[in-house]
Amino acid sequence: MPGVTTEAVEPELTRYPALSAYRRQTEGPARTPLIPPLPRKAPRIRPATPLRVTPNALRAGIATGAGAVTVLWAAQATPSPRLDVLFAGGAHLTGLLAGYGILVMLFLMARVPAVEHGVGADRLARHHARGGRHVLTLCAAHVVLALLGDAAHTGTDLVTTATDLLGYPGIAAAAAGTLILVTVGVSSARAVRRRVGHGTWQGLHLLTYVAAGLAFAHQLAGPDIAYSPAGLGLWSLLHATVAVLLVWYRLVVPARQALRHGLRVVDVRVEAPGVVSVVMRGRDLGLLHAEPGQFLRWRFLTRRLWHTALPFSLSAPVDGDHIRITVQAVGAHTRRVRRLRRGVRVVATGPFGALTAHRRTRRKVLLLAGGVGITPLRALFETLPGGPGDITLLYRASNAERLVLCEELESIARTRGAALHYLLGPSDAAFDPLAPQALRNLVPELADHDVYLCGPPGMTAAATRALARAGVPEDRVHAESFTY
Ligand SMILES: Cc1cc2nc3c(=O)[nH]c(=O)nc-3n(C[C@H](O)[C@H](O)[C@H](O)COP(=O)(O)OP(=O)(O)OC[C@H]3O[C@@H](n4cnc5c(N)ncnc54)[C@H](O)[C@@H]3O)c2cc1C
After folding, report:
1. Model-level pTM?
2. Kindly report the CA angle at 442 between 440 and 446, in degrees rounded to 5?
């Protein structure tokens, strides 16, 4: 195959036209791209919000809140050596922390731009998943301690205590809320989630709002909140704030964006087997303030797709009234995207994600893409500021047929004086193009680069390990995974 090696060392840019010629031969004449690669000065994109909450600030904020909840509990607690009082005290603390945890979970998913753009959607999803497990543990501890406390107080066995307690409406409602949380937790376990499908999983997640409401009512009746006017005020304010953020960013903003931009599909073009680019046209797209590297959630208003909002990264910077994504068919919905017709209305919400220029700390940048993970990196390749030699793009794929957007990448590389290498070959081949030494050979002074990394989870994990072994500090590897 001209211009293609499975050894993955293609340091010469002069070889790429040969590869383009190969692709043209197999796919027919090249078409004029609707969004051409822009061989001019990298455009300046104003971010949607100048505020970005860093991951450390988010962690510190959450921990401070948990500390404040513990202080609120300690202010009400009556020290006593009695077993029932000790159990009850533990039940109150775990109950309050579980309630706070539910609020944090909702906040993390409220899509607040400063948090989304600073922390990144995939890291937020990981925090959410880990936090969900903590909340369930706290709920379980609360139930057990409350039962033990009441049983010790009344001198009855646990079953009688549980039956008696469930007779109180407040406790029954809280039990229903806990059951909902457990169901959501179980449906999120990897093995179960694969079977239930994204729609069912999302539907179950919506029930957590009901669980949060039931938990809130239960806490209001408890002594820690009910007997403390300051506690009651603070607790209510926290809940009201999260509720307003949720309504604003998950309902009002998407509705406003849908009305404002009036997006419609104008072209669907095949990039490679199973991969299409969808170009859309809309009004006032500059007001999205979508930065290269970010993604939006796209709802295509067809009979089979309107009910799901799929996340796809921008595969080119927004260009006037055009916006483009590039989609690989992996499941039922993405297969339908390939069949979209011209004129279909689209509702896009966003932008989201933190894989943007603001994370950069070094002059030299390595963009490392695997498979369809090229999409956000293609947009960054064009727009990251830098002179000749500053930017390198490594694009890993199993073979040349699976490469997409090559002509654009090559044109950008030529125009910017950037390096572009295709790393081809099956993942189980003897030669590993992502091994530390192979990376160092391709990218001189690798340890002094910022690395933007996007690809399938296995490739991302392997590349992260290799980069660490090649001397790139962890905080200079900016990765995004396409999985939830
Ligand atoms: C931040 C981000 C950016 C992405 N950018 C791109 C891109 O530029 N190009 C590209 O081809 N793919 C991209 N993806 C992946 C793409 O979103 C999934 O492949 C697609 O949603 C799968 O949909 P499906 O129903 O066809 O597949 P399924 O087989 O049903 O699902 C495959 C996987 O996608 C997840 N998924 C399905 N629907 C959704 C949804 N509505 N929201 C979130 N996850 C969902 C499922 O949980 C499952 O893990 C991106 C994903 C994320 C998270």
Report:
1. 0.83
2. 40
Mutate to test the pocket of ligand 1, among 271, 482, 483 (most ligand atoms within 8 A of CB): 482
Question: Could you tell me the CA-to-CA distances from 451 to 7, 9, 118, 288 in Å, in that order?
Answer: 22, 19, 17, 26
Contacts of 455 (CB under 8 A, 6+ apart): 368, 369, 370, 371, 373, 396, 463, 482
Pick the CATH number of 13-30+360-481 from 3.30.428.10, 3.40.50.80, 3.40.50.2000, 2.102.10.10: 3.40.50.80
Start-end of H helices in 43-120: 55-76, 83-108, 113-119
If one compares 1 and 38, the residue with the highest pLDDT of the two is 38
Pocket of ligand 1 (CB under 6 A): 121, 198, 295, 308-313, 325-328, 330-334, 353, 372, 375, 482-484
For residue 193, give the ligand 1 atom closest to its CA: 47
More confident residue, 7 or 183: 183
- Provide the pLDDT for residue 33: 43
C-alpha 333 chain-centroid distance = 19
Residues near 376 by Cβ (< 8 Å), separated by ≥ 6?
A: 292, 293, 294, 295, 313, 314, 315, 353, 355, 452, 454, 480
For 162-199, letters b (16+ CB in 10 Å) and e give: beebeeeeebebbbebbebbeebbebbeeeeeeeeeee
Among protein residues, the one whose CA lies closest to atom 27 of ligand 1 = 331
Q: Cα(411)–Cα(415) distance, rounded to whole angstroms? A: 6
Kindly report, residue by residue over 11-68, the tens digit of the pLDDT. 333 233 333 333 333 344 444 444 444 444 455 566 666 788 999 999 999 999 999 9
Distance between Cα 3 and ligand 1 center (Å): 32
Whole-number percent of the chain with pLDDT over 70: 89
The average pLDDT across 295-307 equals: 94
The number of residues in the chain equals 484
pLDDT at 44: 57
Domain residue spans of the chain: 13-30+360-481, 55-256, 262-352
CA terminus-to-terminus distance, the chain: 36
pLDDT, one tens digit per residue, over 196-228 is 777 788 888 889 999 989 888 888 877 677 677
- Token duo for residue 197: 């499908």
pLDDT band at 470 (very low <50, low <70, confident <90, very high): very high
- For domain 262-352, which architecture applies? Beta Barrel (2.40)
pLDDT tens-place string over residues 223-250: 677 677 888 888 899 999 999 999 999 9
Ligand 1 pocket mutation pick from 310, 315, 335 by most atoms within 8 angstroms of CB: 310
Please give the number of the atom of ligand 1 that sits closest to the Cα of 353: 1
